[in-house]
Structure formats: structure tokens, C-alpha cells
Write a structure and sequence with these properties.
Radius of gyration: 23 Å
Helix content: 25-40%
CATH superfamily of the largest domain: Aminohydrolase, N-terminal nucleophile (Ntn) domain
CATH topology of the largest domain: Glutamine Phosphoribosylpyrophosphate, subunit 1, domain 1
Shape: globular
Strand order of the largest sheet: 4-3-5-2-11-10-12
Distance between the termini: 44 Å
Number of strands: 27
Number of domains: 2
Bound molecules: iron/sulfur cluster
Number of helices: 18
CATH class of the largest domain: Alpha Beta
Oligomer: single chain
CATH architecture of the largest domain: 4-Layer Sandwich
């Protein structure tokens, strides 16, 4: 097995993974450098593969796709010189739909299509919930698919459209698509951004000099020195060119926004801004809510690094129990540098995390983590803390129990693998072997995310399907395969 095709976290399959980040820029010299930097800042959203497409009027469209990290692929002068021009888009990927678990080269985006009015490239974050049905229909009508990705449906739907220009065709295509999509696309002169009517996945607009940028998160604007202008609204399409600036319209039937609440907990970078608030601040609020809902007498509050850190700080501030780094993360344990043989795999989480023995010995420890998925990592962390001599271990989790799979662009195990789908909180506590285990309530998470009255059961402000089982977009393909949601929109 070649290193280049290993998943990014071979020792940790116990996290939900956001599958994609998208970025685009127009009106700058050497757009590819900006795209590479933007993708680098979005690398947490997908580490398996990345791609960049640019256009200049001498050489036309140029594209490069690679397995692996942006910093390993899109830095050499030769590579960047092969992507000339003032306009470009890019994509980083962790596979969900398509060749699950291991990305095939043919599934690496952006996808490119040649139309009668010129070429277009498209990068998609999210998941199309009626892709199987669309694909069947398109193949019956003669489309030849190049990849196993749901996103390719959009290119084929565009090819079949009678629209007079690329934005019109994209609009028509996206009206047939169900699910979650934040899209960044490009023609020879324009970049196009579009969010699904519920705005499940993020997309933001930035200004850089005379140019413009689109990105999954504001941290990707920061890295290129772009000013954050605003979020693209749910259901909005923006067509951006150097000549005409930003033209906005709303091609879909209006719907109530249902942004992914898990972006607040885990997926987005803490230095990004979501819904007008820093993600860090929201996570600290989550910790405060958790401390109010689930207090416990203890000596130290420790995060499971890195994603549990802001919530642990919030818990500490609210409870008055000192915060400490009881677990230290090996910063350089990124992509594998050794073959994950069985013996190495058995070392598991120890390769990534180490307990600060001197600190935890004899202490009652509150461990704050972002989520419990399968529970395998939580069990190992508990063992490590107890081995180091802790007197008690209390888990506090910054999200409600993850009991349902996500079909909107996040890689989740099947329901039977989700601990919370099969056990009560007390059973999970016993299974993990900790002194206590408490999750934040859904209401508490909503309050921390800016909804002062908690979750409005009749009209929730966010998508929370992985906690509630209430799916705001019907997961058509999965229902056809036998999945039974608790509640699904029609
Ligand atoms: S199901 Fe969960 S992870 Fe998926 S979009 Fe909804 S809140 Fe986010």
C-alpha cells in the first residue's frame, strides 16, 4: 500500500469528518497561489486530496489534482507555474459520497465540463441526497459519468440545460438537486458561488484589492489578506467578475435556513466567523452551558486536544475549576510517516496523544471532548488517564449524543456503529468505564449558538439531524436503501 493513498488519520476513525473545503478567487495576479493558500487554511475540512483549476487567455483552462495535502503538492514553482491566470478555484476533499474511505483520482475535484459557450469548473462541499436517482436518470438519457462522485451530476445536468450561459445552466441544474451544497465554480471570467436553500454548509465572500474571493470559511480569507465581506445567504447565487463585481440572485424557493450546528461544535476552525460570531466564542459558550448543565466536583478541567480546548476553557471559567493541559498532542503526528501495521495500530491513540502524568496523578479530572462517535478513542483516553494515576475521570461532551448518520456532507458511521444509537447515557458511561459522562443538551447547544430560548421544536434554527434524527432535507437515496429517519422533510 502506498503512503500517498492512506487516509489522513489511520489511527483515529472515531471522529466525524467534514468532507470538503472550497475556495475561489478572481481579479488577482497569479490566482493559483491564493487558491493554494486558501485551501491550505481549509485543510482541516479534507486531507485526502486537492485540486486547482485556473484560466488565462493564452493557455486556456489548466488543472492539477493530487492525492494528499496542499502543502505537499501545491507549492513548487513548477506546479504553480502550470496554473497561470487571474482566476481560479480549488477543492480539498475527504471522501463521503463516491469511493468511500479512499479517494480515487477520478473523484478529485474540481470537475471540469466543456459546454458550447465555453468551459466551466465546479467544486462542491456537501452531499446530494438524490444523486443516485439523478445519476440513473442521466445515464438512461446518455450521460457518461467519469467519477463515482455525487457532485458530477451537476456537470451533467448543466450539459443538458438549454440555458444561454453557464450561470443560467448551473441554476437550472441546481434546482433539480436535493441536499446540501456550497459550490464554488468558474468560467473564463467569472467565479460563481451558491448555497443550497437551507444553507447547510458555509460559504463566505471576501474582497482582496480589486479582486474577490469565495471560501468555505473566513480563516481562508484571513490567510490571503482578504477582507471578510459577508456570508453568502442560504439559497443565494453570486456571479462575480472583475468587470461587473458581485451580482446576487436567489434562484430557489425561499426556505428557512438550517445551518449545520456541528460546524459550531467541531468542523469549522475556531478562528473562523460563523453567523456573525467567532467559532471560538461559541465553543467557549458551549463549555459554559455544559458546566451549568452538568457540574461535578473535581480538581482539573482538561481538554481532549485540540478540538475540545475552547469548550474546556468555557467549562473551567463557568465552574471555577482550574483549566490544565492534562493531555498533550503530538503536533507532528499528521499524515502517516510509518506504515500502519497491526502493532503500530495497537498503539492507537498514544501516537497522537500523551498524558501529562505529573499533572493528573491523584487528581479528579474532568475531560472535555467535542463528541463521542464510536467511543473507541474515548475508552483509550480514559485508560491512559487512569494509567497515569488520575483518581477519577469525568467526561463532559460538547455535543449531544450523536445517534443518527449525516447525509449532508459529513462522513458518519452507519447507525449500528454509533454508540449513542445503541446505548443510554448510563450504559455509555459504563461502557467507557468513566466515573461520570454527560453530554450537552440540544437546547444548551442552541443557547450556546446564539438561540437564547434554546431549540424551537416546531422550527429549529439549525440542522441537528445527527442528534435529533429530524432530517431537514429528505435523504431520498438512503430511504430507498432502507434507512428510516425519525422525521424527514417532504
Ligand atoms: S446531520 Fe449533523 S453533521 Fe450533518 S449537517 Fe446536520 S448537524 Fe451537521
Amino acid at each position: 500500500m502506498s503512503h500517498a493513498f492512506l487516509p489522513a488519520h489511520p489511527f483515529d476513525d472515531d471522529k466525524l469528518r467534514e468532507e470538503c473545503g472550497v475556495f475561489g478567487v478572481v481579479g488577482v495576479a497569479d490566482a493559483s497561489n491564493f487558491v493554494a493558500l486558501g485551501l491550505h487554511a481549509l485543510q482541516h475540512r479534507g486531507q485526502e486530496a486537492g485540486g486547482i483549476v485556473t484560466h488565462d487567455f493564452e493557455t486556456g483552462f489548466n488543472q492539477q489534482r493530487r492525492m494528499g495535502l496542499v502543502r505537499d503538492n501545491f507549492t513548487s514553482p513548477n506546479m504553480m507555474a502550470s496554473l497561470p491566470g487571474p482566476i481560479g478555484i480549488g477543492h480539498v476533499r475527504y471522501s463521503t459520497a463516491g469511493s468511500k474511505g479512499q479517494t480515487a483520482m477520478r473523484d478529485v475535484q474540481p470537475f471540469f465540463g466543456e459546454f458550447s459557450m465555453g468551459g466551466a469548473a465546479i467544486a462542491h462541499n456537501g452531499n446530494i441526497t438524490n444523486a443516485d436517482a439523478l445519476r440513473r436518470e442521466l445515464i438512461e438519457r446518455g450521460s457518461i459519468f467519469q467519477s463515482s462522485s455525487d457532485s458530477e451530476c451537476i456537470i451533467h445536468l448543466m450539459a443538458r440545460s438549454m440555458g444561454q450561459n453557464i450561470p443560467d445552466r448551473m441554476e437550472e441544474a441546481l434546482r433539480k438537486v436535493e441536499g446540501a451544497f456550497s459550490i464554488v465554480a468558474m468560467t473564463r471570467t467569472k467565479i460563481i458561488g451558491c448555497r443550497d436553500p437551507l444553507g447547510v454548509r458555509p460559504l463566505v465572500l471576501g474582497k482582496i484589492g480589486d479582486g474577490w474571493a469565495l471560501a468555505s470559511e473566513t480563516c481562508a480569507l484571513d490567510i490571503i489578506g482578504a477582507e471578510f465581506v459577508r456570508e453568502i445567504a442560504p439559497g443565494e447565487m453570486v456571479v462575480i467578475s472583475e468587470k461587473h463585481g458581485v451580482q446576487s440572485h436567489f434562484p430557489f424557493r425561499p426556505a428557512k435556513s438550517r445551518f449545520c450546528i456541528f460546524e459550531n461544535v467541531y468542523f469549522s476552525r475556531p478562528d473562523s466567523i460563523l453567523g456573525g460570531r467567532s467559532v471560538y466564542e461559541t465553543r467557549e459558550n458551549i463549555g459554559r452551558e455544559l458546566a451549568k448543565e452538568a457540574p461535578v466536583d473535581a480538581d482539573l478541567v482538561c481538554p481532549v486536544p485540540d478540538s475540545g480546548t475552547p469548550a474546556a476553557i468555557g467549562y473551567s471559567l463557568e465552574s471555577g475549576i482550574p483549566y490544565a493541559m492534562g493531555i498533550i498532542r503530538n503536533q507532528y503526528m499528521g499524515r502517516t510517516f510509518i506504515e500502519p501495521t497491526e502493532s503500530i495500530r495497537n498503539m492507537g491513540v498514544r501516537l497522537k496523544l500523551n498524558v501529562n502524568r505529573a499533572l493528573v496523578k491523584g487528581k479528579r479530572i474532568i475531560l472535555v471532548d467535542d463528541s463521542v462517535v464510536r467511543g473507541t478513542t474515548s475508552r483509550k483516553i480514559k485508560e491512559m488517564i487512569l494509567d497515569a494515576g488520575a483518581a477519577e475521570v469525568h467526561f463532559r461532551i460538547a455535543s449531544p449524543p450523536t445517534a443518527w448518520p449525516c447525509f449532508y456532507g459529513v462522513d458518519t458511521p452507519d447507525r449500528d456503529k454509533l454508540l449513542a444509537a445503541n446505548m443510554t447515557e448510563d450504559q455509555m458511561r459504563d461502557h467507557l468505564g468513566v466515573d461520570s459522562l454527560k453530554f450537552i443538551s440540544l437546547d444548551g447547544l442552541y443557547r450556546a449558538s446564539g438561540e437564547a430560548n434554546g431549540r424551537d421544536a416546531k422550527s429549529p434554527a439549525f440542522c441537528d439531524a445527527c442528534f435529533s434524527g429530524e432530517y431537514p432535507v429528505k435523504p431520498t437515496d438512503m430511504i430507498a436503501k432502507g434507512f428510516q429517519p425519525k422525521v424527514a422533510a417532504e
